[in-house]
């Protein structure tokens, strides 16, 4: 006889069997800074982070990659993803969200530099610095990197509420590292007698401004070919201004290195594509401080 108890049990079992298993939250990132910060924030959180493009693929080539040989891989990732972490407020041509959305209309955009809904303040923009593009690299200051971590974390905890305690603990640890880095670098730079610097790159304005270094301009654009005359001009500028430090985002040619040495300055090449953005920023700061404080 089918009793009320049996009916209740049958309904309960049916409910258990029909209850879907909640899938883990999955997010995509494709740039070194967005992937690196997200990886630090999501450590041990249970949220799955997927790299949408090869780690060594420059941002400028990602649109072509997603449109050709990486199209199927992005489609597969986007179909299962809940969100993408990009930088469209800084780099309007960032292709990740628009192209991922073609495969998943429900995918959420997380802008690492400025919240899409304006719920938090975004990064601090330097007056006169062109922001629209990856080359501006505003995350090369501890303050802006910390703000980006805040922005990413705020959206991640809304996407994955169960992971909130771990994400917030990771955020606190990351912010503590940045605070210590800022305090230590400020104290050590205060001991330097000469803070003059020449940048051979268009990507280091935020780094120079964030450390309050004294910039000396040179009559040469980053992508221009160095001529014997421009090399001589560089050496003379370094000598005349007693420039302590020359910065670049890539290793310059032997001829440029020779001109820098003849000018009496020290060359430091800045990294920005490491797996741990905080560790890399610390390494950049330490290299600059070491060069400025050497006898």
- How far apart lie the N and C ends? 96 Å
The count of strands amounts to 8
Assigned CATH superfamily of the largest domain:
Nitrogenase molybdenum iron protein domain
Spans of at least 5 consecutive residues with low confidence:
16-22
CATH class (first level) name of the largest domain: Alpha Beta
Strand adjacency order, main sheet: 2-1-3-4
Rg over C-alpha atoms, rounded to the nearest angstrom: 24 Å
Question: Mind describing the biggest β-sheet?
Answer: 4 strands, parallel
Number of domains: 2
SS-derived structural category: alpha/beta
Q: What general form does the structure show?
A: globular
- The pLDDT mean sits at 90
Percent in strands = 5-15%
Helix count equals: 11
What order do the SSEs take from the amino end to the carboxyl end, as H and E?
A: HEHEHHEHEHHEHEHEHEH
Helix content: 40-55%
Question: Do you know the CATH architecture of the largest domain?
Answer: 3-Layer(aba) Sandwich
């Amino acid at each position: 006889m089918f009793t009320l108890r049996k009916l209740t049990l049958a309904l309960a079992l049916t409910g258990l069997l029909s209850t879907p298993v909640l899938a883990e939250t999955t997010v995509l990132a494709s740039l070194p800074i967005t992937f690196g910060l997200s990886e630090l924030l999501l450590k041990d959180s249970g949220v799955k982070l997927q790299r949408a493009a090869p780690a060594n693929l420059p941002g400028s080539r990602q649109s072509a990659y997603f449109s050709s040989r990486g199209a199927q891989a992005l489609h597969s990732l986007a179909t299962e993803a809940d969100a993408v972490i990009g930088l469209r407020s800084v780099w309007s041509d960032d292709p990740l969200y628009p192209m991922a959305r073609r495969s998943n209309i429900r995918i959420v955009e997380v802008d690492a530099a400025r919240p899409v809904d304006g719920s938090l303040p975004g990064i601090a923009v330097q007056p006169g610095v062109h922001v629209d593009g990856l080359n501006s690299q505003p995350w090369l200051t501890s303050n802006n990197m910390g703000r980006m971590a805040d922005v990413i974390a705020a959206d991640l905890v809304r996407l994955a509420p169960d992971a909130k305690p771990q994400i917030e603990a990771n955020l606190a640890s990351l912010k503590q590292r940045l605070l210590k880095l800022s305090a230590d670098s400020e104290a050590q730079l205060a001991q330097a007698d000469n803070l003059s610097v020449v940048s051979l790159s268009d990507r280091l304005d935020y780094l120079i401004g964030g450390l309050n270094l004294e910039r000396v301009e040179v009559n040469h654009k980053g992508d221009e070919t160095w001529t014997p005359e421009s090399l001589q001009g560089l050496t003379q500028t370094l000598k005349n201004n007693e420039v302590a430090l020359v910065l670049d985002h890539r290793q310059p040619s032997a001829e440029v290195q020779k001109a820098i040495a003849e000018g009496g300055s020290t060359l430091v090449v800045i990294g920005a594509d490491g797996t741990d953005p905080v560790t890399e920023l610390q390494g950049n700061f330490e290299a600059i401080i070491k060069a400025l404080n050497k006898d």
